[in-house]
Amino acid sequence: MINKHINLFLLATENLLRHRTKTVVVCLCIIAILSPFITAIAISEGIRAQSLISVKEGADLYITFDEFGRNAAIPLKYLDEIKKIFGVTKAIPRIIGRGFLQNKLAVIVGINKEDIPKSITCISGRIFENANEVVVGHELKEHFKLQIGDQFSMRGQQRKNFTVVGIFSSDSSIWGSSMILMSFNDAGELFGKQGVATDIQIHSLPGHNSEIATDLYDILQNEPYRLQDKQMIELYFKKGFMLKEGIFTALYTVAFALGIPAILVASGFGLSERKREIGIMKATGWNTLEVLELISFEQLLISLLGATIAIVLSILWVKLFNGAFIAQFFIAEIPMLPKFTLPTRFLPLPCLLSFFFAFILTMVGSIYSSWKASTESPVISMK
What we know:
Helix content: 40-55%
Order of helices and strands: HHEEEHEEEEHEEEHEEHEHHHHH
Distance between the termini: 33 Å
């Protein structure tokens, strides 16, 4: 019994090799449909994982002021009182904004040198130590051909010159690729906002967030402030990625709907010849179940081949071309060809789903016609 199934499997392999044109056409249809899907899911999962890592390694609480329902700058006059709250281990003021370096938009991060996370390192140069010193991301460095010691000014503060003293690695986070890191005071002068911070990061002892929130209310009860914990920030990230994935899915569904007829037609390519083959099989003693098993083995092999090639091409798409033309769905304001290392995660489940989806499509395109031919008289099928 086992030998019978093995022989059918080997015969299915021979049929695919004999009908090379059909095999190639169906594989190309599968690859065209699955490659963008697998690549997009890998990019989305990679960015999501990198974002969640940054959230988990960040502060326990984030406090800002509220203005028209949005985050607003918080005065630094409350910083000392916040630091004295029981359970607070560290309170870090930051300035985060965006500005133009000539014609290119950059992320500006202002923070005191002693508060810089230890995970931030430079591939060349050093972290800033003095006023007007900055560390720039790899993408900015490549775009403007910046070197250690070069000086530049930014739109909005043309009289203030900054000196490049360090370069971030291209393998750092995607946000670091176009980031300019400077001292807190320099960032305040750049944006013309002295004595305020974009937010204050609060690191706390485990289990003390509720008590800290109560003390913050006593300190800021007459002010419109917003307090967000790590779980809330994580939820914002997840919702943002769900929105991005939803937009991509909506666009991809349209393209996918156009691709389904192509793969169904390709699966039935050479239908008259296949009917004659089935007629010969029936005339020589094959039953309907054996014919359908042979067809199923053929579709299984061609789906496995197409899905495997699609996965390999998706990996090459990301590794060699950095997800060109598709990364923009998930990362705003980047060029068609990203100049930084794109974070990706190829998970088993999307790859398995891609294979099963390809198998279902090819089966739909061939199983009914094969069953109909196998139930007809051999004489009619061989005409």
